[in-house]
Amino acid sequence: MYQIQSQELRTLTTAHLAQTMSLLALNIEELGEKIHSLLAKNPALELEESRRCPQCLRPLRGNGPCPVCSHPTGSNDEPVVFISHRWDIPERAFTGGSISPDEAPGLDEYVSEERSLALYILQQIAPALAPAERPLAAHILTSLDEDGLLSIPPLEVARYHHVLPSRVESVLHRIQRCDPPGVGASTPREALLIQLEILGESREVPPLARRAIEEHLEHLGRYQVHELSLALGISEAEGAALVRFIRENLNPYPARAHWGDWHHGAPAAAPVYRRPDALIRLASPNNPDSPLVVEILSPLRGQLRLNPLFRRALAEMEDARRPAWQKDLERARLLIKSLGQRNQALAQLLRYLARKQRRFILQGDLYLTPLTRAQVAAFLGVHESTVSRAVAGKTVQLPNRRIIPLERFFDRSLPVRAALRSIVAQEEKPLSDSQLANRLKTLGYPIARRTVAKYRQMEGILPARLRHGIASHI
DNA sequence: CTATGGCACGGATT
DNA sequence: AATCCGTGCCATAG
Question: In angstroms, how far is B10 C1' from A455 CA?
Fold first, then answer.
């Protein structure tokens, strides 16, 4: 099967191949933009809005039954692959515009790890929001970074929606009091202060905590008890107690389960949420032994085809414009064919990944088998750069509804980090990095002590001496 | 002396 | 050719 497809690839003309490759490099959103601009430019192209499957709302081709709904056949080894469109999700839900649960009933299915924070908070404050405040809240929530901090100035929100800054502040204030306390703060410092304030309403807090955060945040971050005590004019014991209180009760990055390494290395740039390029799900959701179904999503609401009117007109045409029209027609043909090839190539890749990484897909990070793009390329009989293009910038939604970048399938350290997390989560006493390294070695992950430190940091796990039986999850 | 982070090198990967 | 990643060495903090 693969052989046939790759042979097809080889027989393509160079123009065709070039276009296929450039389309392959695009993710679903970029592809959508590209196609729409071509649709506007080229009259030979047409978007046909076909009828929908009454059950799953996908458009149907021809007169046959819906290929997605009618029970797909496949085995554990041979996942089923579809190239399909989805019409049931409002485009706007993905573009960071206003989202509200009742507006997009299926949205929760499409929420990425990061964006689920937004919905979680929205659910808490939705009842308290005036209708006019909803867009403000949506704007703020969709601008949170992965740490739960607000990545844009509140003033910008006010300007955008033409409302008074105080209106935005009022919404923001309510958001900051939602569950991960302090979300929506602009800086770690502000987040800490908000948490302190909230905490102060229900229990006693050290009187100097506020000043310590406001004026000596660096010392807190570096755990410099000595310097802090000196600066505040208190004893080292008092200083240590203060630091412990703050570190145990407050969190500069509200959405992180643990204090990461917050004195150096700014948190990574906020991930941009997109609808996934593909879905991987179980043929029967409740049966983990059923075959996997891979669905390549198309950005189009309908079926791209040659404009029949255009073809008829061209056939009857005699004047000087004919060559130009002919050219348009050729271009349109080429695009449609290339688009098909692009989707085929993606499907091929995903089918392979689904088969090879079935355990990872169903059972999580720990079971990712090491894989390089080069290996995949060799197996599929395509060039390495083809695989690179296909993987770059794309995302897939797994059966657990998480949307992950395709690159993650090639992350060699992922299972090790998962193992590390689970060791730390279960440890009785904090283990040092070298102890962790030994543990990992016995589990079949021979990595250097130095590397443990790196992974720890990536996972946001504190060094041993700062961990005190704080249960780790996530 | 032990634990951990910074820097930089070299090999693999893209 | 450029980039990423694991690792070794060294400095520093405790």
Answer: 20
DSSP A431: P
Q: Domain boundary residue among A199, A233, A249?
A: A249
**Residue A450 CB lies within 7 Å of the nucleic strand C:** yes
CA atoms within 13 A on the CB side of A49: 3
Output the distance from A449 CA to B10 C1' rounded to whole Å. 18
Cβ of A457 near strand B (under 7 Å)? The reply is yes
How sure is the predictor about A113, in pLDDT bands with cuts at 50, 70 and 90?
A: very low
**What are the pLDDT digits (tens) for A388-436?**
999 988 888 888 767 788 989 999 899 999 999 889 888 888 888 999 9
Residue A226 beta carbon within 7 A of nucleic strand C: yes
Do A289 and A406 belong together in one domain?
A: yes
Rg (CA), chain A: 27
Does the structure show a pLDDT above 90 at A362? Answer: yes
Closest nucleotide relative to residue A453's CA, C1' based: B4
For residue A100, tell me if it sits in a domain. yes
Query: Do A83 and A105 fall within a single domain?
Result: no
The reply to whether A449 Cβ lies less than 7 angstroms from strand B is yes
Cα atoms in the 13 Å half-sphere on the side-chain side of A98 = 14
Does the C-beta of A224 come within 7 A of strand C? yes
> Using CA atoms, how far apart are residues A104 and A167, in angstroms rounded to an integer?
26
Containing domain of residue A55, as a range? Answer: 2-87+275-410
